[in-house]
Design goal:
The chain is built from eleven helices and eight strands. The protein is of the alpha/beta class. Helix 5 packs across helix 7. Bound molecules: 2-phosphoglycolic acid. 2-phosphoglycolic acid binds next to strand 8.
């Protein structure tokens, strides 16, 4: 199980430090669950210092596909590793929707993450219109095919997929456990085709979209749901810890 908190554009440095401390205290010993927090870039170092020596890991919310260069406003993989990151969220639907992120761009970033020892958490998911039109699997299948082209994680703990139906993100509306399981099983089949059964079985497929302490256990109880990518509920240590405990 992998449970990652996506803090999005919340918390200044002091608030990030305090939230990180709250998460560490609330989570305690997470047992078999890998717990990760993904604060905004400017707080990565402060959070890294706060969680040092604890079971909580660090991730970023995005990165550029090149090591360095004239790319104003961007942050590279070597910068993230030097800040203490092991994980990076790639292709989040908000990046796709508001910042023009494409599957091809995500693909380049996955290669770059792997080249620098980062574990990409690759987000896929359909919009409400696409689901209503019966195209959810087609959309997710295409996102997977294009963004994972050429991906070589090496071992299954070096890649995670997050299925996040766009209509469930920040809306309070969650996919039903059946809907989540159905899509996760589909994703597993695609991963099997690309990486073979052993890797596909072991890769973490996370569900994201309005996961809360009250619905986490049922979602995580599905055969192919291996954890969650948590937005809103990751901003309170106790709620995030309760979700991690459901893993
Ligand atoms: P949410 O966000 O939990 O607030 O719906 C999830 C995400 O965007 O990763």
């Amino acid at each position: 199980m992998l449970v990652a908190g996506n803090w999005k554009m919340h918390t200044d440095i002091d608030a990030a430090r305090a939230l990180a401390r709250d998460v560490v205290d609330s989570v305690g010993d997470p047992g078999d669950v890998t717990v990760v927090v993904c604060p905004p870039f400017v707080s990565l170092s402060a959070v890294a210092a706060e969680i040092a020596g604890t079971p909580v890991g660090l991730g970023a919310q995005n990165m550029h596909a090149q090591d360095a260069g004239a790319f104003t406003g961007e942050v590279s993989a070597p910068m993230l590793t030097s800040a203490g990151c092991r994980y990076v969220i790639l292709g989040h639907s908000e990046r796709r929707q508001f910042f023009g992120e494409t599957d091809e761009g995500v693909c380049a970033k996955i290669g770059q993450a792997h080249a620098h020892g980062l574990v990409p958490i690759v987000c896929v998911g359909e919009t409400l219109e696409e689901r209503k039109a019966g195209k959810a699997e087609e959309v997710v299948g295409r996102q997977l095919a294009h963004s994972l082209r050429g991906a070589a994680p090496g071992s299954p703990d070096r890649l995670a997929i997050a299925y996040e139906p766009v209509w469930a993100i920040g809306t309070g509306e969650t996919a039903t456990p059946d809907q989540a399981q159905e899509m996760h099983a589909f994703i597993r089949v695609r991963l099997n085709e690309q990486f073979g059964p052993q890797t596909a079985r072991a890769l973490h497929i996370l569900y994201g979209g309005s996961v809360k302490p009250g619905n986490a256990a049922e979602l995580f109880g599905q055969t192919d749901v291996d954890g969650g990518l948590i937005g809103g509920a990751s901003l309170k240590g106790e709620d995030f810890a309760a979700i991690a405990r459901a893993g």
